Amino acid sequence: MKDGILIIDKPKGVTSHDVVDMARKILKTKKVGHSGTLDPVATGVLVLLVGRATKLFSEFVHFDKEYEATLRLGVVTSTGDSEGKVISEKDMTHITEDDVRNVFGEFIGEREQVPPMVSAIKHKGKRLYELARKGIEVERAARPIKIYDLRITRMALPDIDFYVRCSKGTYIRRLGEEIGEKLGVGGFISRIRRISLGPFDVRDSMKIEDVHEGCLRAWKPN
Length: 222
Hints:
Pseudouridine synthase; 5 helices; elongated; 35% strand
């Protein structure tokens, strides 16, 4: 069995662990992991580590990331994305495009962000999303993050398409909620796609069903 990495374009509707399981079956090995979770609703770059490359995990966790996403204003959901239950709806006809642009500009730079309950962070040995499914909410400490670039690419209110380049630990679902909160109407992320993870670009990715042993790439940390 060879060692190396695979750059997968994760499809919507499956978990990152599902993709790992698919790769294990295709490559006939249990030694497969991934370098950073994508939510089931998300698509895009998911780097799989195969064989001895699984030891490189710590080299990947500090990478910056780029996303393309859509924020829908005026609706708050239980998960911050389109998979959750609608918690509240607010009229947003008074919100202008200038209002949105001004608020987006406020989120660029270093700041702190409280992780969402629907995340893979552990609390007393349990994943937060496991607790969230049971209706349990626990206090989460804010974490330092950095938004390097945040640009609106299309606006057709209540929907806003945007691009973001950010540091590790940044939750795009939470960013969408925060923008909605700042505007006073709430919001959720209806679409999210990771287009890069460090040096790995979605244009170099492949579908999980096309994977074979010959696709493995060698990679060494700098």
